[in-house]
Amino acid sequence: MGYIAVIIIGAASGAVISGAVFAFIVKIGLITRLAQKTSTQSQIILYEEAIIAGGIFGTVIGLLNFNINISRPLMGLIGLMAGVFYGCLAVSLAETLNVIPIMARRANLKRGLAVLLVCLAIGKAAGSLVYFLIPGFFDPQ
């Protein structure tokens, strides 16, 4: 009987947390913004289903703790897609919170904001590549 209670509590907690995550994604307008930028407003249901499927797939892999043998190029493609998603999520959140205009005003930037954003993205990508491709690079000596 105790196992059943734990299963019910775990499933209910997972449902609440996943609902909050998806509400957050909807609230910051990630899905609608991606659809607008790519002129694919008619495919918005597909966007939503892809995000839900990715969440379920990631949860199942995390819970069952099994290894999937996939090739390095496929692993790189999956990492690239995840990076694009998280990048879009971060930009949507920053846009919602007006981080970029506030930062530009405080730094007294009149021109070059686009260059600054590209440099930030390149720096983040370079740091991620170094972290994942050079094992132990950031470990303290």
Protein model, in words:
By secondary structure, this protein is mostly helical. Helices cover 77% and strands 0% of the residues. The longest helix has 26 residues, at 2-27. The N and C termini lie far apart (50 Å). The mean pLDDT is 80.
SSE layout:
Elements: H1 2-27, H2 30-37, H3 44-64, H4 72-96, H5 99-106, H6 113-133
Labels describing this entry:
globular, 0% strand, 141 residues, mainly alpha
* Straight-line N-to-C gap: 50 Å
Based on helices, strands and strand pairing, what is the structural class?
mainly alpha
Helix content: over 70%
N to C succession of SSEs: HHHHHH
Strand content: under 5%
Radius of gyration: 19 Å
Shape: globular
Number of helices: 6
Q: What does the largest sheet look like?
A: none
Low-confidence stretches are none
Please count the beta strands (DSSP E, at least 2 residues each).
0
What's the overall average pLDDT, rounded? Answer: 80
What can be said about this structure in brief?
With 141 residues, the chain is an all-alpha fold. The chain has helices at residues 2-27, 30-37, 44-64, 72-96, 99-106, 113-133.
